Amino acid sequence: MRTRYIKLEEVKGPLIVLDGVSDVAYDEIVDIEVKGQGHKKGKVVQIDGQKVIIQVFEGTSGISLDNCSVSFTGKPMDIPLSKNILGRIFNGIAEPIDGAGEIYSSKRYNINGRPMNPVARRYPRNYIQTGISAIDGLTTLIRGQKLPIFSEDGLPHNQLAVQIINQASISSEEGDDFAIVFAAMGIKHDEADFFRVNFEKSGVLERVVMYINLADDPIVERIITPRCALTAAEYLALEEGMHVLVVMTDMTSYCEALREMSSAREEVPSRKGYPGYMYSDLASLYERAGMLKDSKGSITQIPILTMPNDDITHPVPDLTGYITEGQIVLDRNLFQRGIYPPINVLPSLSRLMKDGIGAEYTREDHGDVANQLFSAYSHVQEVRALAQVIGEDELSDIDKRYMEFGRRFEQTFVRQGFDENRDIITTLDLMWELLSILPKGELTRIDPVLIDKYYRG
């Protein structure tokens, strides 16, 4: 029989404190019965001798020192999972909110996941096609990779997330084994409706699992949401053998919740008030991406975060960049010029790109033509700076070609309609069309055999 504790020591923000407690474990789930309000869930977050601090998932509203009783379940938080989660919508703590009933399964899974043995990991290979040229051509998303999107306040990262989810695909012979897990943290009600309505319209909802934490939900749920989503992804990938793409937005909201919880627990703050353990906490989420040798499935992550004050050195993007394998950077200047998606390709990169493209996966010219395009667009920035000093009319003929290349690159390659889905061959052909603006002598990073085969000048 479980012991129930009938008096609290303290209630502080989203936390309650109990004293005189024994046989309790860190991360253990707690059942809190509040008189007249029913039951709430909590989690043990700190143990100091016989004193225990508990996070209350639904918040401590209505809880006083003597109107509730607490019992410990003896296990961490777990959720029921089956393949029936596809097409379903859950709240931040994996409770169904779509009116389609509970998920019934004989198996329950710990939301903290199962760490992947580094020796058992497979190196990421092959790619996921997003249908967006700036990503597929220049920062290719590789299966098993974690590739974040760095955005800024007011930029269309939500639209980009929807477009990626609507268009993402893998090779046709494996298409039936592809699923998407979408986790939203701290979003507004209209944003939640935007995601749901667009997924329903495009017909992809049946292969998507949604976990939604709203801005007015308790912040403790925000810390649970990505863990529930990643647990679902691990189940689909490792037990059902599916290739799973996990899109998480907004990781900055998650980190703000982490900071608020740390402050409530009176922990010593680190950079900009964030807890010193934020790096390891983020790593515990991001490192759940990957592939295992004994499983045909894969987990690929696209975390989306907004950079406070447009500062890429802020702790959230800074630590994320250390853990992940590249980044896709959205640019305010491109957005103000009406270019969607406003992806700045120069600071963007995919560190695993070279291992999932080429003759075996995309086309034999992909690596060379991507390198040349980066080089040419980088030179465009130098030419533009020169043109501001001496005027465009005074540029040399070759520099004028680079100016034309830069304009066409941004207007026809980076710019793309919200509903425009380009396959990888279309993207590569468009890259050659752009490079053909330049003379052959400028294409120093491409094998001459490939130039003879694809150059259109």
What is the 3D shape? elongated
The strands making up the biggest β-sheet line up spatially as 9-16-15-17-19-14-20-21
**Straight-line N-to-C gap:** 81 Å
CATH architecture of the largest domain: 3-Layer(aba) Sandwich
Structural classification: alpha/beta
- The fraction of residues in strands falls at 15-25%
By CATH, the topology of the largest domain is Rossmann fold
What kind of sheet is the major sheet? Answer: 8 strands, mixed
Low-confidence segments, given as residue ranges, are none
Percent range of helical residues: 25-40%
Average pLDDT, rounded to a whole number, is 91
Family: Belongs to the ATPase alpha/beta chains family.
Keywords: ATP synthesis, Hydrogen ion transport, Ion transport, Transport
Domain ATP synthase A/B type C-terminal: 355-455
Pfam family, one: ATP-synt_ab
Please give a structural write-up:
- The chain is α/β, with parallel strands linked by helices.
- It has helices spanning 133-138, 157-167, 189-202, 219-239, 251-264, 278-286, 315-323, 332-336, 366-390, 397-414, 424-435, 448-454, and strands at residues 4-5, 10-12, 15-18, 28-34, 38-48, 51-56, 68-76, 78-80, 89-91, 108-110, 121-122, 127-128, 141-142, 149-151, 178-187, 208-214, 243-249, 291-292, 298-306, 326-330, 343-350.
- An eight-stranded mixed sheet has the order 9-16-15-17-19-14-20-21, with helices on both faces. It has a seven-stranded antiparallel sheet with strand order 1-7-4-5-6-3-2, with no helix packed on it.
- A hairpin with a 3-residue loop joins strand 4 and strand 5 (38-48).
- The mean pLDDT is 91.
- Keywords: ATP synthesis, Hydrogen ion transport, Ion transport, Transport.
- Residues 131-350 form the ATPase F1/V1/A1 complex alpha/beta subunit nucleotide-binding domain.
- Belongs to the ATPase alpha/beta chains family.
